[in-house]
Amino acid sequence: MVNFSLEGKVALVTGGVYGIGFAIATALYQAGAKIVFNSNTQEFVDMGYENYKKAGIEAKGYLCDVTDEEAVKAMVADIEATVGTIDILVNNAGIIKRIPMTEMNVKDFRQVVDIDLVAPFIVAKAVIPGMIKKGHGKIINICSMMSELGRETVSAYAAAKGGLKMLTRNICSEYGEHNIQCNGIGPGYIATPQTAPLREIQPDGSRHPFDQFIISKTPAGRWGTPEDLMGPAVFLASDASDFVNGHVLYVDGGILAYIGKQPQ
Ligand code: NAP
Ligand code: GCO
Questions:
Q1: Catalytic positions, please?
Q2: What average pLDDT score do residues 136-152 get?
Q3: Whether residue 42 has its Cβ less than 6 Å from ligand 1
Q4: Quick one: which of 43, 56, 68, 91 has the most CB atoms within 10 Å?
């Protein structure tokens, strides 16, 4: 019997307050996991508690900026002491800044790389020792189509997400012998607050040009929803994927496979 159960497992979903992280945490909870989440503002930690409560999910939240290594180490130590060793880590927290590269200041570039690439390193580094002691672990890095493709204005994000794909492969290479599987999920274009600017209805009531572009580039003919990521996350978090390692599972409606619909 294939085992998709997460009963008795402890899952940390960084930035799991809303959007993709919240949907993935919900799926892991439904599969039996205990949920821990964090955010870098108390306001959003509180929002997370409200969202989980509304969904009938018991979750523990931490105020922790994932770019702060000491804060991450303290959070992981407290989770291990009060909830249990972390069996599943979902490096979900992330930001994007859409600025043409030559107009982007180094501070902004560094902030995106810090949160989207350095932070997954920091959090994985903090949880792997416990996984080694326990004899197993699952790390799921939330990559992106921009782990494979570039586009205008997202140089920092694409560089970070491309790096995250290779960090995923390196964690697989370095810790696979400890029965730790590190994989990525590469969402396509998903309707969350992060992509809301790309879907804004135009003053004349028409859809945003980028919205129309994505629809024409996606065989599924729609934007993804956070719920589309739930099943893939449970698969990669469960024993069912014990021989899947270093892989990025693209959940993109087929966009990476498709040249795009001919303009009518
Ligand atoms: P989102 O709605 O913007 O949520 C991002 C989450 O990360 C928020 O909870 C945010 O908390 C948290 N976060 C940001 N910086 C943080 C920090 N320094 N420390 C702790 N938490 C922090 O984004 P999303 O669309 O759900 O995306 C989630 C992940 O999927 C990101 O890694 C994103 O790059 C990736 N992704 C998204 C899409 C998409 O189309 N939406 C596609 C591919 C990949 P605050 O709100 O408190 O800042
Ligand atoms: C953008 C979007 C994308 C998505 C996602 C695609 O501006 O192009 O925000 O980057 O967030 O990463 O997989």
A1: 157
A2: 98
A3: no
A4: 91
* Residue 39 beta carbon below 6 angstroms from any ligand 1 atom: yes
Give 151 Cα–ligand 2 centroid separation in angstroms.
Answer: 9
CB atoms within 10 A of CB 55: 13
Q: Give the count of alpha carbons within 13 A of 230, CB side only.
A: 14
Position 263 scores a pLDDT of 81
pLDDT of residue 132: 98
Q: Give the residue, out of 69, 194, 225, 250, with the most ligand 1 atoms within 8 A of its beta carbon, to mutate for a pocket test.
A: 194
Residue 2 has pLDDT above 90, yes or no: no
Percentages helix, strand, coil for the chain (3-state, rounded to 5) are: 50, 15, 35
- Ligand 2 geometric centre to CA of 187 (Å): 9
Using the CB atoms, write b or e for 219-233: b if 16+ within 10 Å: eeeebbebebbbebb
**Reduced to 3 states, what is the DSSP secondary structure of residue 247?**
coil
Segment 83-117, tens digit of pLDDT:
999 999 999 999 999 999 999 999 999 999 999 99
Q: Could you give the CA distance from residue 20 to residue 231 in angstroms, rounded to a whole number?
A: 12
Q: Which residues line ligand 2 (CB under 6 A)?
A: 96, 98, 144-146, 151, 154, 157, 187-189, 194-195, 198
Contact 55, 109 (CB under 8 A): no
The Å distance, Cα 190 to ligand 2 centre, comes to 8
The answer on pLDDT for 79 being more than 90 is: yes
